[in-house]
Amino acid sequence: IGLGQMGRGMAAALARAPEISRVLVYDASPAAMESVMGPDSLKPSRSVTQMAASHPAAIVLSLPAGVSFDVVSEIAESTRGSTGGLSVIDTSTTSADEAQRKQQLLEQAGIQFVDAPVSGLPERAESGHLSAFCGGRLPSESSAAGTALRALCRADGIYHVGEQCGQGQLAKALNNVLYNISIAAMAEQLPLAAAMGLDPEVMAAAVSSSSGQSFGWDRWAGEVLSHRFESGEDGYPMGEAHKDWVTLEAGARGAGKTLGPVVRAARGVYEQTLTTVPGAAHMHKGAMTLAVSYTHLRAHETPEHLVCRLLLEKKKKTIHNTSKHNPH
């Protein structure tokens, strides 16, 4: 259930698994349903209720945080008294508190809940090479839930991070915040490189093959240099991803801890971007570059124009210097 950026690929990976004989799919969006109707092993379902009532061995969720609890409630109501060992695997990114509420609701209906948010790009979802952060009881390898998880994840990609339901969500939030920190660092250092007269394109390549390399740098530096900030197919919109900071802060508070200075600083850059850059909520995280400046803005100049100006000025200087040394 849920055929968005990740769900489409996950459905394809499940359909290819030889141990799985039938995969039902459902999304509230007709366009999303149409996008996966190709493989014969994918069968459309008309609703959550119809899918839950068809006696599946397991249901995999890949849903936005705002709707996933309602879907779980519908599953519990539709299958009450006739679950037959059903398991619900929640690969969505929500919060620890929500995961625990889902578990309580489903267990009252006799359904096993698996807290297993996943990480990986859409292409890794389709190839079955995701990573899953599992909290609470891990399904056995021979169970339907275990089979589904193995079809979605690489061989060593199922991580049992804690004994309590919800700890999978905490682990996923921590992972995502580390990713955010790497992008915030890129957002500061790439404009600084241009301001200091370094070639930003050469620096992007040099860092990617040196000790400063990070997944965030590799994924978004090129997009920033090309002035592309739309979230696209594999960039989660900043507005929707803000929940990771909130989840991690709540987890730290529950452990009697506070977020450290590095996390607080990166969160400041992230939230500054959301409040000062028009449309940032719908951009990918590389848009944090637009909120960072090492020079004064010119009159009526937006942060986006500043970043573009710094990069273009450096390119013009390079061309001019080349012309001086090679007049003919």
How does this structure look, described?
Helix 7 links the parallel strand 7 and strand 8. Helix 8 packs across helix 12, helix 8 crosses helix 13 and helix 9 runs antiparallel to helix 10. The protein has 14 helices and eight strands. By secondary structure, it is mostly helical. A three-stranded parallel sheet has the order 3-4-5, with helices on both faces. Strands 6-7-8 form a three-stranded mixed sheet. About 2% of the residues have low confidence.
How do you describe this structure in short?
The chain is mainly alpha-helical and 328 residues long.
Overall average pLDDT: 89
Proportion of strand residues: 5-15%
Strand order of the main beta sheet, please? 3-4-5
- Distance, first to last CA: 63 Å
Per DSSP, the total helix count is 14
Question: Structural class, judged by helices and strands?
Answer: mainly alpha
Order of helices and strands: HEHEHEHEHEEHEHEHHHHHHH
Number of strands: 8
Over the alpha carbons, how many angstroms does the gyration radius reach? 23 Å
Give the overall form.
Answer: globular
Low-confidence stretches: 294-301
Q: In percent, how helical is the residue content?
A: 40-55%
